[in-house]
Design goal:
Number of strands: 7
Strand content: 15-25%
Largest sheet: 5 strands, antiparallel
Shape: elongated
Oligomer: single chain
Number of helices: 8
Length: about 220
């Protein structure tokens, strides 16, 4: 009688998931990952074995957002439970909870540091001083956008396009998309036309709307 060969154990559905997720993060860009996968990448470090996707999703379901997950206390984080693919209950241990709290503290300090260093553009005079310093040696036309927060602090000064001596195309949809990404409260559009000349457009609360073209003189 022929003996039936022993069956090979089934490969867990999550086998290879960690490397696939890392490859996707490297290839498409980590900024394109959904929140639960970003959490997974971090949890890989704290929990080197097993499927962490259920616990990442449970964290978001419990607290409502990625920001709320990271802002939660160690005690609250440790109350979160989830079932893995085998029906086993898994939770957040003290070490993993502390890692998440530490990540939040790192983000908080970075944000505070950036806020303390931001340039404040609160008047037409301050705007002219800033763009004079930034553009006085630029040889070609360019279109740049200054994105501000609700305190008129500069979030980002971004060159949208550099052109030829007298041509710099720009796409309004990209400008608006970028503003939404940065959660900007207002924008200042700087169109550098030629050496020493520029067009400026800024919100009424910031500028007294003088002549739309300002002379860029060397200091």
């Amino acid at each position: 009688m022929l003996e039936t060969p022993p069956q090979k154990p089934k490969t867990p559905h999550h086998a290879g998931h960690r490397e696939r997720l890392r490859e996707r993060a490297r290839g498409a860009g980590i900024q394109h990952l959904p929140d639960y996968e970003l959490l997974e990448l971090f949890l890989f470090r704290s929990q080197p074995q097993g499927d962490v996707k259920p616990i990442a999703k449970a964290l978001l379901a419990r607290f409502g957002s990625l920001a709320a997950v990271l802002a939660a206390s160690v005690e609250d984080l440790m109350t979160v439970k989830a079932e893995d693919s085998r029906g086993r209950s898994k939770g957040i241990g003290a070490e993993t909870a502390l890692d998440l709290v530490a990540l939040h503290e790192v983000a908080r300090r970075i944000t505070k540091e950036e806020a303390n260093k931001r340039t404040v553009i609160s008047s037409w005079t301050a705007l002219l001083a800033y763009v004079r310093l930034s553009l006085q040696h630029e040889p070609r036309e360019q279109f740049r956008v200054l994105y501000l927060d609700n305190r008129n602090q500069l979030i980002l000064d971004e060159i949208q396009n550099r052109g030829t001596v007298d041509h710099a195309p720009v796409y309004p949809r990209e400008v608006v998309r970028r503003a939404l990404e940065l959660s900007a409260k207002s924008m200042i559009i700087v169109h550098y036309v030629a050496r020493h000349i520029m067009d400026l457009m800024c919100p009424p609360r910031l500028c007294a709307w003088p002549e739309p073209t300002a002379q860029l003189t060397k200091s």
